Amino acid sequence: MILQSLRLVNFGLYGGEHCFELAPDADGKKPVVLVVGHNGAGKTTFLESVRLALYGKRALGARVGQVEYERHLLKRINNFATDRSASVALAFKSQHLGNEDIYTVRRSWAARGASVVESLEFERNGASVDDIPSEDWNHYLEDLIPAGVSQLFFFDGEKIQDIADDQENTGLTDAIKSLLGIDILDQLRGDLALYKSRSMDQEGDNDLEGLGRDLEIAKSDLVLAEEEIGSLSAKRKRLARRSEASQKVFEQEGGSIALSRDTLSEELKRVETDLTKQTNALKSLVNGVAPFALAPKLLARFSADVELARGQQSAPAIDAFVSSFQEAVGKEDAKWTKAHFVRLRDFADRLQSSGSRMVLSMEPDWVMAKFAQVSDERVKMATLAVQLAELQKQRTILKDQLKNFRPGAASGAFEDLKSAEFELGAVETELNRKHAEATQARALVERLERELRKSQDAVFAMVKAEEKRDLATRAQAALNDYEERIVELRLASLSKHFIDAFGGLVTRKSLVRDVIVDPNTFQLKLLGEEGREITPSELSAGERQLFAISMLWALGRTSGRELPMIIDTPLSRLDRQHRTNLMANYVPRSSAQVIMLCTDTELTPDLADIITPYVSRRFEIGSVGGGQRTEITVLEPEQDAQVLLETTDAH
């Protein structure tokens, strides 16, 4: 992996937009990128932004919560950002399916009150990485550079100092575990143990034998019930035929009439009563206007004459109205003359004198209202006629049935019919009971079959679970064996790389001849000449610094990953000779890309002379605006010597 660029927008001290082009030269002869600035200029912010771009919340630690992470993001927005937003974007080159692709990861966030809205963009060769679900982008990035391994490649002077001052080598122990994947192995072993425990808890008692026995009994009961239903159904058919035959004999001997004589008498009385009521109703209709329905044409002419007579009877009222109108209007309105009133009276007289004159003893409106009832009366007459005919028919039938009645007839047939009906009813009752029993037995069989299948599935699952637990046990044993082998191989490689690195950095070349890492505790033991153990107190402060750097270097080499190295202020506690050794033997060789963050006082002219042949890019960073904002100056490598001379003169 090679870092291509880092773009910061309103991140920390980097107000506005700033871009670091980080790709070293293509031939690999100049792997070093220098970022030089005084304390507080933004070097540590540079390292933090790389971590944040790659890991997001994980950059702050595995146990950091979302609220704490959002508070951190709020603090990292530049104070002068008007829109209260910031972003970091890291582009890097990495292998994918045999091709060398350019990836860009961009994290942006904006303040929304006390909370933060964050977004993640992940691109490959300028296009979104759509072959990986967006929710898995963070996992994919961490697979490229695991957070635990990154501490071996991205570190600052404080980490070096912590390792150097740690007499118990706790920091290195954690780094070695992370390198070897022991933490992952421990987690995997724990997950396997948890799986086995939960698998055991899920197992229950499954009495297959008992369920099978209950199912056989239920099936046997169902077969018996169905056989009895078949037998009862056949018996019911025989009794039904016997009952039908007895019914026919009974009816042929007049049994139906004999049984219903009283009923027939009561029914005849009711019919005769209804017949009398309906006859009286018909007579009442005939005495009214109903007969007019028989002469519709006569009724029409008579209605017209009544209408004319109604007009003739209104003549006095019209004449009185005209006289009153003449008396009221004629004196006040000159438009109404006597001639007008004469013509009005003539018109009224002509209307009254037209046609024959009829004298009515009743009011014409009453007569017309009666005529309006004729159609309803016609419907009532028709209905009553139909009802009378039906009642007369019923009366005739009932009289004939009573006339044929013979006391004592069909008594024997009646007894046979009662016996057949009784036996048929008993059989039907028993048949219904057996149907209910069969339904219950069938439901029980179905339930037991479901329970049996469920139990069989559970037993099968138990067998599979037992197989999986056995696999989990064997996997745990394999993990233990793998851990032993990988630890042995990696620790041997780690020891070799450490001796090479440390021997090239310290002035006392024969100080440490070997390093032993305990495979159980991962504690370090330095051995000198003749196998004598060297305690940390025997090393000088500078040697302890170089010990930490050498161990980090050896861990990085042992990891087998081709990752860039980012080192923040590694020279502050080293003397001149050790600085020279570090610049000459470590920095150019530690990785294919080394980004070195150092202060302007650390990079003295003599050290610059050593490192400049390996430098492909150099950035000068400095704070402006009272330390509130950082500016970046890009220098070409050939400008380094002049810049260093000017820096030395200034100091």
Task: Write up this protein.
There is one protein chain. It contains 20 helices and 15 strands. With 651 residues, it is α/β, with parallel strands linked by helices. The protein has a domain at 204-473. The strands form three sheets. A six-stranded antiparallel β-sheet has the order 2-1-4-5-6-7. The protein has a six-stranded mixed β-sheet with strand order 8-12-13-3-14-15. It has a three-stranded antiparallel β-sheet with strand order 9-10-11. A hairpin with a 2-residue loop joins strand 1 (2-11) and strand 2 (14-21). The longest helix has 95 residues, at 411-505. The protein starts with a strand and ends with a helix. Residues 5-276 form the Rad50/SbcC-type AAA domain. Keywords: Coiled coil, Plasmid. Residues 208-281, 374-401, 431-492 form a coiled coil. Pfam families: AAA_23 (PF13476). One of its GO terms (molecular function) is ATP hydrolysis activity.
Notable traits:
651 residues; alpha/beta; six-stranded antiparallel beta sheet; six-stranded mixed beta sheet; DNA sulfur modification protein DndD
Overall 3D form: elongated
Q: Looking across the biggest beta sheet, what order are the strands in?
A: 2-1-4-5-6-7
Mean pLDDT: 79
> Which spans have pLDDT < 50 for at least 5 consecutive residues?
640-651
What is the terminal-to-terminal distance? 38 Å
- Main beta-sheet strand count, sense and barrel state: 6 strands, antiparallel
Structural class: alpha/beta
- Percentage beta strand: 15-25%
Which percent range fits the helix content? 55-70%
- Number-wise, the strands total 15
Oligomer: single chain
How many DSSP helices? 20
Q: Report the radius of gyration as a whole number of Å.
A: 58 Å
